[in-house]
Amino acid sequence: MTQPLxxxxxEPMRELWASLYSDVVWLHGRxxxxxxxxxxxxxxxxxxxxxxxxxxWMFQQLLLNxxxxxxxxxxxxxxxxxxxxxxLRTFHTKLEESGxxxxxxxxxxxxxxxxxxxxxxxxxxxxxxxHSDLATKLSSRATPLSGPSREExxxxxxxxxxxxxxxxxxxxxxxxxxxxxxxxxxxxxLISAFAVAKCYRELVKEGVIPRDHLRKRFPRGV
Length: 222
Known about the structure:
The protein has 222 residues and is mainly α. The protein has nine helices and two strands, in the order ααββααααααα.
């Protein structure tokens, strides 16, 4: 979803805000899908394991790593050497440069609270996910790094929403329910597809559907 430039925001930060907004919306979208697939109930996890265990395990790890990387990037410094980063701190700096000092002052402690909520997440990003720290890699063979709990991610996302909505309230007098982002196709659709696949497999075993039906309909690539 691309956020159109909102004229209610001052010109110097319109494009920056639209990009941040899009990143935060889709970050919540990925977390919603993760919860739908892996954080709803054991029956769903069992279904995924039965139908495509290896692939869905890989997808689970990739999705969780991506969510942690995205949270970390949003809290990164405004600059890395000569490069400017698209982060909350960059937006905060732009507010100060544009004379929006009241909002900048209100936003600063919220950004710091978000940063604090991501401390463990950023550690994993720096030592394990985005980089291969030698000492961490070797020690993890004996004591693997613990992954984030659902609560840890939820706390970080709540802190992130508080930052974003402080800006929304200032310029639009409204808030965005990022946590209720709705997609045309999400994890629920995938669960339904896997449920149908399981039923199909059972019908093949019962002889209702020919065993070569799937191979004929969708031949494997060479």
